[in-house]
Amino acid sequence: MRAELGVDPYRNPDPRHTELLPERLRPFAPYSLDAAALAGTDIPLVRFGDMWSRATGALRHLAGLPAERLLHLSYDAVMTDPEPQLTTFGHFAGLAEPEVWAARVAEKVDRKRAGAASRLSAGQAEELRLACAPGTRRLTGLLDGTAAGAR
């Protein structure tokens, strides 16, 4: 999309961007994002790892927050036993009925995704590990309270 538009539509949102994109890219634009199309798209592991690593750059904004303003959730825990994890999040977020919300959302969790990393080949796992390394360092730094989380 960046190559087609000359800008990243997620960093510079404009509803007109969707109309300027070729039909094959429109389901992925911010104002016309189609969850089914996205779910049906095979994202290469390296690209996903790179995107995730870039997204962790926002962690620097969390580095100075007091501990009571942060909530750490494990993706694996949400995948394997979602309701208690989501209830914890609901309480943290101040939802009116966190247990009700968590039960409703937990039904939508695709538990087949749990442990997906263990089903990768050794080569795929290494590619993903390398792509995620910068983000992993940031996240580890934030959790450990070191400077690495602030970069």
Mean pLDDT: 88
Task: Please count the beta strands (DSSP E, at least 2 residues each).
Answer: 0
Secondary-structure content class: mainly alpha
Give the topology string: H per helix, E per strand.
HHHHHHHH
Head-to-tail CA distance between termini: 27 Å
Strand content: under 5%
Number of helical segments with 4 or more residues: 8
How would you sum up the global shape? globular
| Uncertain stretches | none
* Residues in helices, as a percent range: 40-55%
Major sheet description: none
Briefly summarize what is shown.
The chain is built from eight helices and no strands.
What's the topology here?
Layout: H1 2-5, H2 16-20, H3 35-39, H4 45-55, H5 75-80, H6 82-93, H7 98-106, H8 122-144
Helix pairs in contact: 4-8, 6-7
Primary descriptors:
151 residues; mainly alpha; 0% strand
Provide an overview of this structure.
The chain is 50% helix and 0% strand. The chain is built from 8 helices and no strands. The protein starts with a helix and ends in a 7-residue tail after the last helix. The mean pLDDT is 88.
